[in-house]
Structure formats: structure tokens, C-alpha cells
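Tutorial sheet, problem 5. The two components below are modelled jointly, 354 residues in total.
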Amino acid sequence: MKKSLPLSQVYKFLEPGPVVLVTTSIKGHHNIMAMSWHAMIDFNPPLIGCVISNRNDSFAILKKTNECVINIPTVTLIKKVVGCGNTKGSKVDKFNKFHFTPKHAQTVKAPLIDECYVNLECKVIDKKMVNKYNFFILQVTKAWINSKQKNPKTMHHLGNGLFMISGKTIKLPSKMK
Amino acid sequence: MKKSLPLSQVYKFLEPGPVVLVTTSIKGHHNIMAMSWHAMIDFNPPLIGCVISNRNDSFAILKKTNECVINIPTVTLIKKVVGCGNTKGSKVDKFNKFHFTPKHAQTVKAPLIDECYVNLECKVIDKKMVNKYNFFILQVTKAWINSKQKNPKTMHHLGNGLFMISGKTIKLPSKMK
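Model answer (C-alpha cells):
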């Protein structure tokens, strides 16, 4: 189902601001967190900046392992996404609780969430802003896309459990990348 | 038309990932650029991280003046937004060319774009990542919202002039802020 996504195309999936699920792994234990505070930093190799709060269990795992996967869900998964946001990975196995399927990644130990239509394997390349802002800079080392997913409807957080669902698209002549 | 927006509510407008227009000003000359590479860094006071390429005229102005305004347009302005992305502020007065109305800000010299439904006055508070990543950390010092704008349709860049327009909303019980 999944095919390789060229790294040069990764920015197109994060620029519009979807809620993503970040997976991490340590000593065989996988975790999942929901995240909206991310931005592209560079095109290729794709660099991503993101805030992972030190109140999240994922913070310590990412800081230690320097690896994660950014998984982009469609709106069909919205209840599971909110569930991940409302539970603690140190107390519950989120893959099991929310019936997500972990798949082996190619370049990192953290698992892909098979149900997400895009998966970005990432390595932490800069932690200088972690102590002050909980801000990590990641490099995407391998990317996957479900080529059968047409018109994916992504979810975009508006605060307090309110989500905007992606609508129609418009194409304009543009010199912008 | 515009009323003060509590700083604690700012994140709700940037989390979903809209294209924004960044205004800067130096020696009485205003500039505008389109931007999609931004993320929330903290809630209150609201901190925003953003990449402003050193190929943009706005880069040098922001680096020198440490002030800007992030303006959020609705889709009715899409042609003007793409126009701003396709022109150089050093060669053309974008306020004049695209018929945008500059309004005085309260805490910075850069102007608000009156036609945008949200305006965030920002000061640069951290330039440590500017040389390496063109990444600025801004603090929102004053925020405005057009209280008459109901159901604002924001635009979200998918690359190469393709935009997703914000669709319907869904509310779920959530402990997430």
C-alpha cells in the first residue's frame, strides 16, 4: 500500500498544518503523541522544527533516542487522534488501546503507524533550542505515502478539541515553491 | 471593525497552518511577504517560530528592526496573497500594487494589513537560529481580530500554488488545550 515519497515533496504535506501523530520507541516500548506545533525549516533534505512539551512522555524518549516518526492521519482517525492526545503513554500502550498497527521503519527504531497515509522517519539533528523552548529540529531520513489515498482529508486543530477538516483545493499560477 | 484578541487565544489561529502575510517596515517603506513555515512555540505570552528566507527582502528588514506583523488573510484575498509571494518588495510597493490598507500598529512600526481578519504584532526575541536556519522566534505583543468575520475560510499551501481551503469543523471532547 505504501510507496516511497521523494524527500523533496515532504514539505507539501506539513505546510498546510495538519495534526500529526509522533511515534517514539525506547526499550521495545512504543509511544504516540498528537502534535500541531510543527513547521518546515528546509526543503531538501527536509528539516522540520517542532515543539514537544517536556510534560509529554515523548519528550524524554525523543531527547534520549533522537529518533521519531511523524505520521499524518486523515479525519477517519479523529477519535483515535484525540484519544492519543488525552492519554499518557507511560500508563497505557496506545498502539494497543487505539488499535493502531506498528510497522517497522527503515531508518529509525520508532514505528510507523500503518493507518496514517503519510509517514516521515526523522532523526533529531539539533537540540540547541530544547532546553529553552522544547523545540527540536528533525531531519526526515525516509518518507512513505499511501498511493491509494485520494483526496486525503486532514484535521487541523483550532484549540480545545475543535478541528477544521481540510476542504476543497484551488490552484493559482505561482512562482512560489 | 477590529477588537483586541486576548494573547492567550492566539495559538488557535496559527495551529491549523494558514498562509499568513508578514509585514515589515524600515525608513517608512513597508513590505509584505507570504509565509507558511511557522509554528507556535508557547501559549502565553504567545511565541511563534518562523522561517523567513534570506532570499526575501523581509529577512534583512526583520533582522534589523526586530519587528513585524503576522496578518491572517481569508480566501477572498487569495490572488493578492499569491501576488505578494510572486513579487519583490524592493521593486514594488505591495500595499499599493495589491490595494492593501496599512493601519498603524500599537506596539510595532510595521503596519497591520486592514483587510486581514487577524493581525498579530510581533517582536523578535531570539535570533540564535537565524544564521543557520533563517529561523526567528517572535513574541506576540498585541493581537487584533475582526469580530464581524464569521466562519473565516483560511488558505493552506500545498506547494506550487495549490491551496487547500479550510472546510467544516468538528468538535470532540478533549483535554488538549
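Marking note: The mean pLDDT of chain B is 96. Full credit if you identified this.
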